[in-house]
Amino acid sequence: MFRSSGRLEGFTIRNGSDSGVHAYVWSSPTIAKCIIEDNNGDRGAGLKVTFVSFPSVHETIIRNNRAEHYGGGVYGWYAGPNIYDSVITDNEAGIYGGGSASAYCRGYMALFRTFVTNNSAPYGGGLSLFGGYGTCFSNAYAINSIISGNSSEYGGGIYVGDGGSLKLNLSTVVDNTADYGGGIYSDGNINRSYNNIVYFNSTLPVIKNMDVWNFTLDHSIIEGGLDRPGIIDADPLFVDLEGGDYHLSPGSPAIDSGIAYWHLPDHDIEGTPRPLDAGYDMGAYEFTNCKETPTVEITSVSPEAIWPPN
Fold first, then answer.
1. 112 three-class SS
2. What is the rounded end-to-end Cα distance, in angstroms, of the chain?
3. Half-sphere exposure of 8 (CA within 13 A, CB side)
4. What DSSP character marks residue 205?
5. pLDDT digits (tens, 9 = 90+) for 4-28
6. pLDDT tens across 69-78, in order?
């Protein structure tokens, strides 16, 4: 438990009965290269962040945690973490946010270059946002991230409830399952969201509130289409969908089809610079031919064949 700034690095935290790690009351610790696993709790079984605390999480695995109500992996209330280069996987929640939940007034969650996979909850298998009362909102950012293989009743990948506000950029939402909104289910706000891929989920995204003042999910590949600028409804041509390789193949409609925007990052989920060519690529990966490995065939190793070189 943290009540001030500090650093937790290289530890495995498991078998906690009320969260594995809890940051609260104006604390902003750094958590790096840790494994947070097999913990339980009512809210935020893996990592719970409350009361104006903003920890920074780096290169950490948050897995196999279970919350009775909110945030199997991660939970924010009046606070929240910035999570970088991490994996949130195989977590479960009884109501909201199997992977993570940003909840009630001023709940906050930011994911950068992070994988959210194989989590489950009734509302938002991967990521869940829900507000509180009055004009309070919970906010989440997912940038250069992959949200895949999660399951739910509403919003297999992402659930945005009333009072929730999501910004989704350069991310891939794929292979999630839900009764309603396999990729995304939203009753709340989605704004300033560009260059994403939402495809190959069990059911189409369900976006209910499309007020032009609080809805921007543009210049993206969306299965089933969407009446927004720059939307493409076409197979993104992943390298290996069944194998979970969501790099783009040559000829993908996602290549150079995104737009530039002032807050977009200059590298992808692997650190590849973006944009590389004519424009941003949609999804978490920037396409580069350098990922293709050439085939080398050795036909002879005799001295006469290799010396002198020609």
1. strand
2. 66
3. 23
4. -
5. 578 999 999 999 999 999 998 888 8
6. 999 999 999 8
